[in-house]
Amino acid sequence: MNxxxxxxxxxxxxSMDLLNGQIKMExxxxxxxxxxxxxxxxxxxxxSAKFFFKQTEEEREHMMKIFNFLIDTGxxxxxxxxxxxxxxxxxxxxxxxxxxxxEVKVSESIKNIVKKARASMDIxxxxxxxxxxxxxxxxxxxxxxxxxxxxxxxxEGVGKQMIDNSIEKWIEE
Amino acid sequence: xxxANTKYCSLRQDASNRFFYLHLxxxxxxxxxxxxxxxxxxxxxxxxxxxxxEESCPHDFKILTLCNQQHLVLLTIEEILxxxxxxLQAFVRMGLxxxxxxxxx
Lengths: 173, 105
Ligand SMILES: [Fe+2]
Ligand SMILES: [Fe+2]
Known about the structure:
The complex is a heterodimer of chains A (173) and B (105). With 173 residues, chain A is mostly helical. Chain A has seven helices and no strands. Helix content of chain A is 75%, strand content 0%. In chain A, helix 3 packs parallel to helix 7 and helix 6 (130-153) runs antiparallel to helix 7 (159-167). The relative contact order of chain A is 0.16. By secondary structure, chain B is of the alpha+beta class. Chain B has one domain. In chain B, 31% of the residues lie in helices and 31% in strands. Chain B has three helices and six strands. Chain B has helices at 33-44, 48-51, 77-93; strands at residues 2-5, 9-14, 19-24, 27-31, 61-66, 71-76. Chain B has a four-stranded antiparallel β-sheet with strand order 1-2-3-4. In chain B, strands 5-6 form a two-stranded antiparallel sheet. The longest helix of chain B has 17 residues, at 77-93. One fe (ii) ion is lined by residues 26, 29, 59, 62, 106 of chain A.
């Protein structure tokens, strides 16, 4: 088979499909963090809101990174539809817990794509995802640290205010 | 050169102009590679179960537009399933897929 198709596309087609799924997931994360920022603003956690506004931007950058990779490799990136964003949280702890849940899901999804890429010998995609694997370690770790801090501080009395003030530490420039 | 064929359709490629030709019954649709990807996306993202509901697929066929609405095709459920099979097969043949079953999401 004269490989016209291979000359046009540098990755496996299944990798492209999975990466399109990941684009959607990053877009969903971005929107979910925006909802969390909104909740924080409305409930007086202004520093936490700032944290989530920044996360929103980062998730969009992740999405664009994958989007551009698909363009560079000759694939067909799909602009994602996002729905089902939760805006209801029972506490600031609840907000960060669901953020952690989100990040864990994203980590698992990325590892799954790495595994599939490896199985199909798609080294290009596997190497591209190296950055994401390590980024996820950092993101999970950040939110775990914040949850530890919330646990230690406690939510009674001035606890909530102290929690919000402490978040500043995790908003790197 | 023939890339793949199934009961109702076939896909050929022409190395001289780098075009693919999708034959659906009497119709032959010339496609650039990116258009072939778009056709694949369109067909594989059709929710198969919904084809069997009257509202989405009345009288057993579906009307699809392909290639930025340049082509209008009318396909029965059986032809859609066949085209789906063709596209899966074609990408395996072209060395861009090792999966028999699509991981399409
Ligand atoms: Fe992300
Ligand atoms: Fe993240």
